[in-house]
Design goal:
The protein has about 160 residues and is an alpha+beta fold. It is about 25% helix and about 25% strand. The protein is built from 4 helices and 8 strands. The strands form 3 sheets. A 4-stranded antiparallel sheet has the order 1-8-7-4. A hairpin with a 2-residue loop joins strand 5 and strand 6. The longest helix is centred in the first third of the chain and has 17 residues. The protein is elongated and about 80 Å long. The model has no long low-confidence stretch (mean pLDDT about 85).
């Protein structure tokens, strides 16, 4: 009726501009290729760690459940001999691990070491994280105390 009477329509951009804060997802992929049985056992421990960390925890009464682990992820580099946050890469807030996918045949063939457990010779590990809180405009200003510095990568 509005468009017929006045020749105008509602601006659909209003709906596109802001529908609420978004929690950012992050996906990391790792190729784990142990060179021997000892390293293969460590790789299996790494895979188990992430699977267990994303699992719900129970308490003795089983009346309540506890939340899975959360992760603080950062890109590191060495600056003047000190491990620092990489200044040219994004910062990530505390995350929950939503998915841990393991490809046990990343080369398309079944290949194991000759150990009693028949450990795979390679794995592809995909970890899917999601931030627990959105990035706010104040977060950029907190990086270096100057909210007008457009040269920082930030969040």
């Amino acid at each position: 009726l509005l468009s017929r009477a006045t020749g105008t329509v509602l601006n659909p951009n209003l709906e596109l501009l802001f529908q609420g804060p978004q929690l950012r997802p992050f996906t990391f992929q790792f190729r784990l290729s142990p060179r021997g049985i000892k390293e293969a056992k460590e790789v299996k421990k790494i895979i188990r760690f992430f699977k267990q960390a994303m699992s719900v925890k129970t308490i003795s009464t089983n009346a309540f459940l506890k939340t899975p682990h959360v992760f603080d992820i950062k890109y590191q580099t060495s600056i003047d001999g000190k491990d620092e946050h990489h200044p040219s890469l994004t910062r990530i807030k505390t995350c929950a691990l939503l998915g841990c996918d393991v490809d046990y045949t990343p080369d398309g063939t079944y290949a194991t070491f000759n150990d009693p457990e028949k450990t795979m010779t390679a794995y592809n590990l995909t970890l899917r994280f999601n931030e627990l809180e959105p990035v706010f405009d104040e977060d950029y200003a907190k990086l270096d105390g100057d909210d007008n510095d457009s040269s920082i990568i930030g969040y």
